[in-house]
Known about the structure:
Four Helix Bundle (Hemerythrin (Met), subunit A)
Amino acid sequence: MCHHRRVAQGVALDPRTRRPSLLAVGTVVWLASELMFFGGLFAAYFALRSAAKVWPPPGTHLETVAALLATILLIASSGTMHLAGNARTRGDRAAMHRWMVITIALGAVFFANQIREFFVLDFAPSSSSYGSMYYVMTGFHAAHVLAGLLLIVIAIFVTSRAAGLERHGPACESVEYFWHFVDFVWVFLFLTLFVLR
C-alpha cells in the first residue's frame, strides 16, 4: 500500500506528466491567431459572394477532380503525421522518420498540384473578386504547406542525432500541431471553393 502511495505521489508531483511544454502551448496560441487570420479571409469571401449577382463569374472553371485527389492525399498525410508522433512517443526513431518522409511525399504532391493550378486555371487574381479571393486564400495556404514541409525536414534532421529524439520532442510535437492545422484549414477551403462555390 505504501509503495503504491509513493508511486502515485511521485506521478502526481512529476511536472512532465501534468504540464504540456511551453513550446506546445505557445504553438497552440499562435495557431489560434492563424485560425483567426484565415477566418478573416473566409469572412471576406462570403461577404463578396453575398454581394455578387453571379458567383463565381461565368466561365470560371476549377479542376475539382484533381483538387479532390490532392485533398485526399493531404488528409492522408495528417494520418501519417499522427503515426510519426506515436512512434516518437514510443522512442522509435526509425518509424518516426519513415512516417515523416511519407508525410513529406504526400504534402509535396499536394503542394505541387496547388502550384500547377496557379498556371493552368483560366482566370487570374485580377479577373474578378472571385479570382482575387481564390488566389489569396489558396496562396496563403500553399505558403503554410511549404512552411510545414520545411519544418518536417528540419525535425527529421535534428532528431537524427543521438539525443535528438528526446531533447527535441516538444519541437516535434509543435510541428505535428502545425501540420494538422494546415490540413484542417484546407478541408474548409476545399468545401468553400470547390463544393459550395
